[in-house]
Design a protein that fits this description.
By secondary structure, this protein is an alpha+beta fold. It has two helices and seven strands; from the N terminus they run βββααββββ. The structure holds zinc ion (2 copies).
Length: 102
């Protein structure tokens, strides 16, 4: 669990049921760690599929379907350890999704 404020390692304070940052003093409830912590790649992909989130980075990629010149993208880690990460693009206009070929 890392501090949401200063990104340092937090220590669990089990008596108070919370994480405490020894650097800046921030606290987080113990139960919240699971949601804030790392999400698995499958969930990240779902987030892209579902979300028309403006927080996603965009790239100047041409949509193969409608020709729009901008797409959201997210890195997807493949399960094979030897395989590189793959970028998944989603057209900002028509929502078409495709993966980057390397
Ligand atoms: Zn902190
Ligand atoms: Zn498109």
């Amino acid at each position: 669990m890392f501090c949401p404020k200063c990104k340092r390692l937090m220590r669990p304070d089990t008596a108070a049921r919370r994480w405490r940052c020894s650097a800046c003093g921030a606290t987080v409830p113990l139960g919240a760690a699971r949601e804030i912590g790392r999400s698995d790649p499958a969930q990240r992909e779902v987030a892209v599929v579902d979300g028309k989130s403006s927080t996603l980075p965009t790239a100047a990629e041409t949509c193969p379907k409608c020709g729009n010149g901008e797409a959201y993208w997210v890195l997807r880690q493949t399960r094979g350890a030897d395989e590189p990460e793959t970028r998944i693009f989603e057209c900002t206009k028509c929502g078409h999704k495709w993966r980057e070929y390397q």
